Every structure is written in structure tokens, then in C-alpha cells.
Amino acid sequence: GDNMKPHDKLIQELHQGKLSRREFLQKAVALGAAGTVSGSLFSTQALASTPKRGGHMRVATNQGSSTDSLNPILLTSGHTNFLHYTIHNQLTEIDAYGQLQPLIAESFEIGADASEWVFKLRKDVVFHNGKTLTSDDVIASLGRHRGEESASAMKSFMEQIVGLSKDGDHIVKIKLDTASVDFPVILGASSLGILPSVNGKVEAFDVGCGSYMLEAFEPGQYSKVKRNPNHFMSDRAFVDSAEIVTIADPTARTNALLTGEVDVIADIDSTTADRLKGR
């Protein structure tokens, strides 16, 4: 197990040859329609009361490596997967109820048929460096996952794209080689975060438009983030700052939680969960 979001785990399994493309799509659609265990927990517990703002959170993940990279194309570990969702935003997302929602996109719709998709972008998305997001950033970010040289885990999906164009600063049109009603689900993958571009190219991986801004990154060890005061959604980023640490050993990770060294841990097996219930 790991701390990846369910649909990112599907992507990794596809990349490793454990799933066919058809199996992936079937599972991804089921995930979007039926929700997930974590979604159920969020809706019944976390969303039951209004969260308080402020404070510092320490999170321990179970995956991390000295070769980890901030480049979203390289989905290297659970740690970087966590970061990609923290400092970046994608065109779409799966919400806490397991439903597909627009994120950077304000809305999306099918064109002539399901081989054409039109994404209308929000006009209030600002990157951490102050740059306002436009369709050029979306095209540059998604385009990196295509082509012979691409090492992206999403390559097989992104190469369905035969046309990637804009209609002004806030509309992106995507033409696929075949109809795909599931394509917006795929665009919520962590590695498909939208990054700022310069002259059609993405040059920095540490700047995103997510609800947290990166302060420090030590591959395989820790990441530090702080709340983005300019994020376009008010129901995000309730803590002021957070530190994500990698603790690979499950016993050490559990002990870190019990001693108060960290506040949240990932990848708890059923035995450990039972042990923690009464605490």
C-alpha cells in the first residue's frame, strides 16, 4: 500500500503493465461514480464540522527516495505524488465524494463528439510567482507528456491528443484520436498539474498554483510548504504550514504518530489501525 490517491495508483499500475488501458478506464470511471473509502471518511467525519484554520501539520509518508524529483512527469514516489497535489492544481479533480469536478477549469464540455473537449479556464488562478494562468500554460504543461522523448507515466493517454489549441487566454480545445468520455477523469492525475510557462515552455517545477507554496524540498527526506494566501478556492489550505517527511519503516512511522512527532501518517495496515483505535 501507499499514500497515493486511488486514481493515481491506477495510473502507476497501468504504467507498470499491471492494468490494460481498458481496465484502467473501467476502474477510473467506477472510481469517479462510486466514490472511495477515503471519500466516505471525508464526507462523514472531516466535513461534519467546520475545520479550524491555522497551525502547523506534520505528515509522514511511506514512500520517498533520494532520486525524487519535482518534475511532475516523473511520478517517482508517494512523497512527490503528495507534493504534486499540494503545490499544483490540475484541470479537474475527484472530490471528497468521489465525483469529478472542474478545478483550474471553470467548466468543460464535449465538442462535436467525445473526441473533442473544450475547457473554459478560471480567470482568477495566479501562480505562486504572481503570473496569471492562461491557456498557454495549460497547453505547455500538458504537451510535455506527449512525444517520443517523453518519460511521462501519462504518455499513453496524452498521446491520444492530436490537437491542443487555444481560443483566447481562457479556452483550451483538445482533440483526441478517438472518442473518450473518460478523458476529463484522466486530467485530474497528479502528474498533470499545470505549471507556469515562458514562451511555450515549462522551466520551473517548484512553482505551481496550488493551495500551498513550496518552501523546501530535500529528496527522500522532507518537504516544507506554506499556505498560498492567493489561492482561488476558500475551502482549501486550512493549516498555515506543513512538513511532509518520509518514514519508510511502518513501525517507526506508527511510533512517530504515537509519540506526537507527526500528526498524520499514511499507509496504516489493519492490525495497526485496530491498535490505534482506542487512543
UniProtKB/TrEMBL annotation:
GO biological process: peptide transport
Pfam family, one: SBP_bac_5
Molecular function in Gene Ontology: peptide transmembrane transporter activity
UniProt domain Solute-binding protein family: residue ranges: 100-277
Gene3D superfamilies, alphabetized: Periplasmic binding protein-like II
Cross-referenced PROSITE patterns: TAT (PS51318)
Keywords from the named record: Signal, Transport
Family, per entry: Belongs to the bacterial solute-binding protein 5 family.
Record-given protein name: Solute-binding protein family 5 domain-containing protein
